[in-house]
Amino acid sequence: MAFVWCFSSFGERQKFDYIVLILDLKIDDKINYIYFRRLIVKCSLFCCKAVKAFSMNIIFHHPLPLNKHAKSASGIRPLRMLAAFEALGCQIDLVTGYTAERKKCIAKIKENIKQGKKYDFVYSESSTMPTVLTEPHHLPLHPLVDWFFFRFCKQNNMPIGLFYRDIYWLFDSYGDGLNPVKTLIAKFAYRCDLWVYQRTLTKLYLPSLEMGCYVPRVDPNIFEALPPGHNSPELYSSSFSEKRPLRLFYVGGLSNHYQLHKLFEAVSDLPKIELTICTREAEWLAIKHEYPKPTSNIKIVHKSGSNMEAHLRACDVAVLFVKPQEYWEFASPVKLYEYLGFHKPILASEGTLAGQFVHEKGVGWTVQYDVQEVKALLAKLLSNPEMRVPVLQNLERIGPNHSWQARAKQVIEDLTS
After folding, report:
1. CA-CA-CA-CA torsion for 377, 380, 386, 389, nearest 10 degrees?
2. What's the rounded Cα separation, in Å, for the pair 143 and 130?
3. Which of 96, 143, 281, 400 has the fewest beta carbons under 10 Å from its own?
């Protein structure tokens, strides 16, 4: 007798989104019946969840056009979440683009509702800019479009979850070098966004709950953490050999929030360590004077997409060893979860939320932002490659729990329970 089960992994340990399990059971088969029975029950439960997601109609809101060629985290995240909802089987109507496009989308949704269509919830990805300033000219010519739409959704009993990207505008350094009048207008517009969120949202998603301490005007009871995820990339086996240098890799910005000076200094004195920094060329040119001239074992590259991933795949340790600052006490960077997805052990700094995560989950090593501290750790990794074994095991265990599909599944559960 043959049983065929199809189910979605939903962030479980399976490497593929969909798995077909075929069990050819015969009376004389020497199998553990109880084991397979438990497995089949588990498959059935996943089937039920998949059907639930498949039957959902949702609205996806973003106050900017979706850019398939985006390279920044703020542009990539909406695409990843949208793709994750689609992969889970959700039927999605978009409210995206500039104001004129969003108005057309909203009119279509209102017509759908008149015709009897039901929506299960609204999910929104905010912009790094205030919503009313997202037009190309940054003038607030249509300040109430999104507020009226959110109010309409709430009046029609549609739960709304919104991911709030950043709170940097509340810091004193915000506006440095900018027109003071424009800075004042932007801060007022940010506060207007929060006013709308307090009155309309079911959930306000944040990169971390620690960021909630900085968010004014909104009831903390609706805060939920929804950090970035990863794409569950295809993995290849790799091993470190003492016969070659230990490869470190960092991808991301090099602005004031991402200072790697101590790491540069440490690696410069360790010829058996190779460090590759992947960052935008313009950003490197703007700050390269702050760093010593790269030694032969430090490379600066400007790659993205698959070219960047090739460097990440080739490394032994991924880097988040940055100077601790107040911002890093709540920041939850995309690169942390990219590293998780590729099952790369992570080198992080104490005094940061990322470092705390790395330490608690056992997915790398967290040390003080100090030259001697990091040199000592790197020397140990060189002489004791087996230190990576338990870390790699932890990465394999928890990595799938932090995929983009796992994030989308959380939203579905939050807004439909």
Report:
1. 0
2. 10
3. 281
Long-range contacts made by residues 71-80, C-beta under 8 angstroms, separation at least 24? 71/304, 73/228, 73/333, 73/334, 74/127, 74/128, 74/165, 76/334, 77/125, 77/163, 77/165, 77/228, 77/334, 78/125, 80/228, 80/229, 80/231, 80/404
Cα 13 to Cα 338, 343, 368, 402, 408, distances in angstroms: 17, 13, 32, 11, 17
**How far is residue 166's CA from residue 210's CA, in Å, rounded to a whole number?**
12
Instruction: Give the β-pairing of 203-206 and 223-225.
Output: parallel
- Which residues are within 8 A (CB) of 162 and not within 5 positions of it... i.e. 6 or more apart? 61, 123, 124, 125, 126, 197, 201, 203, 204, 205
Q: Which tokens belong to 155? A: 């009046």
Report all structural domains of the chain as residue ranges with CATH numbers, in order of start: 2-52 (no CATH), 56-226 (3.40.50.2000), 246-401 (3.40.50.2000)
CA distance 392 to 293: 33
Do the Cβ atoms of 194 and 150 come closer than 8 Å? no
**Residue 367 near residue 377, CB atoms below 8 Å:** yes
**Cα maximum dimension of the chain:** 81
What's the confidence (pLDDT) of residue 236? 60
Rounded-to-integer distance, Cα 344 and Cα 323, Å: 21
Inter-residue contact 340 to 398 (CB < 8 Å):
yes
Other CB atoms closer than 10 Å to residue 157's CB: what's the count?
Answer: 8
DSSP string, 147-167: HHHHHHHHHTT--EEEE----
CB atoms within 10 A of CB 195: 13
224 forms beta bridges with: 205
SS3 232: coil
> What would the pLDDT profile of 319-334 be if each residue is shown by its tens digit?
999 999 999 999 999 9
Yes or no: say if 264 and 292 are a contact pair by the CB < 8 Å rule.
Answer: yes
